[in-house]
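Posting here for the record, re: uridine 5'-triphosphate.
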Amino acid sequence: MSKRIRKAVFPVAGLGTRFLPATKAVPKEMMTVVDRPALQYVVDEAKAAGIEHFIFVTGRGKEVIENHFDLAFELEATLAARNKTAALEELRAERPAAGTTSFTRQQEPLGLGHAVWCARDIVGDEPFAVLLPDMLMKHTVPCLKSMVDAFEASGGNIVSLEECDPAQTSSYGIVALGKTLGPDVFEVTDMVEKPKPADAPSNFFISGRYILQPRIFELLGTQERGAGGEIQLTDSMLRLASEQDFYGVRFRGTTFDTGTKLGFLKANIAYGSERTDIHPDIVKELRATLGA
Ligand code: UTP
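Prediction output follows.
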């Protein structure tokens, strides 16, 4: 079986209820961080990790996502006629090549596991990546790239890991770690969904990037609904872990949960502060606003 990770799944069918009313008509994945949709950053991370095919699991009201990754003919023609070369080049550079995107609908938001399962026929019988598009993971080395590198050495299944406050383990999927296999690469020996701090095997949580073997689709296909009445990805990963190896790659950058109001604002400040075109003004405005 091929060891290369060529395909990535982006589950974008959720309702984004934590960010209402903004997400009533605008998908949360399309909310802008500085001047680009949050989803574009995550697609760029996948590209930087060598992903060649981008699979979006969408739902009703998410048509703008498909439009964003398509050629906007009238717009490009107008930019060309007006000699807006820089903007035109940027649009062209970011557009995935024809035939490298697929869109399927989840139909009902039955949970993350169900969304991933909806991509089964498009992924086929090969290992693949899953990126949660509301988690922006900022680092000089893209998170998925480190995971793909680890996968090429170890195979199996891989999750991204970060450390949480040990008192907050009940908000996360927590792992138990085994052997250290390399810098920031560990064996994962157990996964526990939202344990109380006293029961948590560590304070490392699964943080939004996955490399999974296609066997997960069979497990997801037979799965009952779990926590919150949803088909949970973690439940099937737990079953998969009893059959196959699981590894964790520690991410040492900063993660922003743009599905929450605070995370979204923090992401805008962090990514905006890095932009040479607006950095001095952001700092000045923040100082003026906070009276600092
Ligand atoms: P979240 O739980 O963060 O998204 O799922 P949500 O359900 O949209 O958010 P809230 O809790 O109501 O605010 C993580 C990712 O999985 C997708 C979401 O779109 C998000 O990108 N997802 C979630 C699906 O595609 N389908 C689902 O049924 C659930």
